[in-house]
Amino acid sequence: MTSIPLEPLAVPTDSIGLVSPQTVLIEKPLTLACGIVLPSHQLVFETYGTLNSDRSNAILICHALSGDHHAAGFHKGDNKPGWWNHYIGPGKAMDSDRFFIVSVNNIGSCFGSTGPTSINPETSEAWGADFPSLRARDWVESQKLLMDHLDIHCWAAVIGGSLGGMQAMRWSLEYPERLLNAVVIASSMKLSAQNIAFNEIARRAIKSDPDFCDGNYLQEGKAPLHGLALARMIGHVTYLSDEVLGEKFGRELASGDFIDGTADPVEFEVESYLNYQGDKFSNAFDANSYILITKMLDYFDLAREYNNSPTEAFAHAQCKFLLISFSSDWRFSPQRSQEITDALIRAGKDVSYAAIDSNQGHDSFLLPNSRYQAALGGYLNRVANQLESSQ
Amino acid sequence: MTSIPLEPLAVPTDSIGLVSPQTVLIEKPLTLACGIVLPSHQLVFETYGTLNSDRSNAILICHALSGDHHAAGFHKGDNKPGWWNHYIGPGKAMDSDRFFIVSVNNIGSCFGSTGPTSINPETSEAWGADFPSLRARDWVESQKLLMDHLDIHCWAAVIGGSLGGMQAMRWSLEYPERLLNAVVIASSMKLSAQNIAFNEIARRAIKSDPDFCDGNYLQEGKAPLHGLALARMIGHVTYLSDEVLGEKFGRELASGDFIDGTADPVEFEVESYLNYQGDKFSNAFDANSYILITKMLDYFDLAREYNNSPTEAFAHAQCKFLLISFSSDWRFSPQRSQEITDALIRAGKDVSYAAIDSNQGHDSFLLPNSRYQAALGGYLNRVANQLESSQ
Question: Where on the phi/psi map is residue A101: left (φ > 0), alpha (ψ -120 to 50), or beta?
């Protein structure tokens, strides 16, 4: 195992600045794991940094359940940066001065790439609930077609958190010769029964909303906003730790009071916050996409087709691995990353594992943390040094 | 601290046999914490065992969120025993051969005692969502009126798990001279922000159901079954541990399969189980009661009126305490019981604390466990010995 530098690097604050998404129509057929073939599909993506002359410094960013292509920098007229802006930029852990970073919105999602809100060419209506069932490997296949389109032969690294880490692992097995490094953050080889349970409750919340219309809400001019808000609230609580919720909100009140003898309604800050988060999300995300992608999470089982042996699975990998976990993550606990690390060691692979102390729960992978910055930045610094010395 | 015997007692299997609930109309006014006065209220309760001649061997059982008066034995024609049948009966931890055990359905609930489904005498309609806001102390006040009705001067013990433990603690502060022992199981002095968050999601699930009709579903001839099922599913997952869900269900499938190339819908066992539990509950419980009692849980804060000092609060207690926690309980973790124990020690009280190893999560307090049986049974055995020697 490679050692991780323990001294935190200074966290750089420079931003990429303005970025514009690009759109590509991939006109090659994509055969999905379920057997259905998409004759063509559209992908929206962003890139940060410059591809070097031998096209060897490209990093692929894989987003998670609710992510999109906008991982860093700013869109014109929008002061909210991309979702991984803390870690992507000049001098940052994923250094756009040294790497060419590709961030793609995956199919099935709802930010411009082909998904349930797209028009199904066969019916000339939105796919809606009829969009084909997806697996993480379908995202990998689609990303591979984008890779070919960009004329990149080998990723310097494929990097992702949560479901993103699952894609990075799947890349290492499906196209072992097409990546040098897989960075798997706050992830798991498969969901636990508890994980599946929370996802199913979220799906049922959406489907119970009468405005879901059996998934045909777009055609009906409706949207299951209440159900999707509930789904997000359930997810959101599981992304945070008990500790950080306590620190942020404790038992503070948003309205009402506890004075005896009154019947004033009392609302806690944490209730107000969660309701706000739920409503914000339900206006920005598509309910069919949410169902589709949570199912993709549930289905993911890295070793299923390898006799349920993670060691046998990872025997096919050729890249190096960096695993990162966060102490308070109870959705994909450090034990899950430890299991991946153990399987990689048994398979004789080159693996580094950084177990980061953080009280922010699963969301830690998105949030500033100098140890995390040091582990990821230190690892990618060596990757960049190797690439530059071999040019 | 009193020591707990470490050798598990043999778990007795005798049952109380057939029991019949009793109903009493308490015609004394009950002034609720919110200021509203109930001129009278109905209580349904069961008793197990025989009250001794000096009326000193009575135990009060306090139920939790979804509990009722049927804690032990069987109702005629029903082969499902009461919810605490593992621990109440002849020779069991709460020994009906030695104690007179009183188990009452509390007001605001929906199993026969006055609550949202009862008729409001002022309007001649069901209370519904207009039933007054309740606090745990209101349940204690109502239980105190039942105690007077039964002509019991002092409980040998007040015992409860979860919200039931909160009532036992409140008894020790409100009527310190009216109980000799408080047994507080899997409980907490107040809910964390995460606890409140899950309760609020459950309430929103109910309120989002169009059949909730702003709480007036009874008048409208409807019932928010989908919302209440969701609420229960959320609660149920938090009552179980990740480990026990994994042991029970793992990633086993209830239907469908994973064969590549097919689009069969896959349903995991855990999804099927949870959906079943949700639907079963929503046909048996009242949605307004669920909202009311989860709010009661959120509001509970033992030390609020004692300068937020648990030590200052418990200084008022005169009884002895037994605390019990379960290692895998992440809803009310062992740390919460440790905090109660620490406050009791600082207040100079007689306290025993049994931290039980169990992988069953919060639900452990309802389930067979020989160490738990030994801790509770050993403690109550000494209580019974003292009572019998002083007769």
Answer: beta
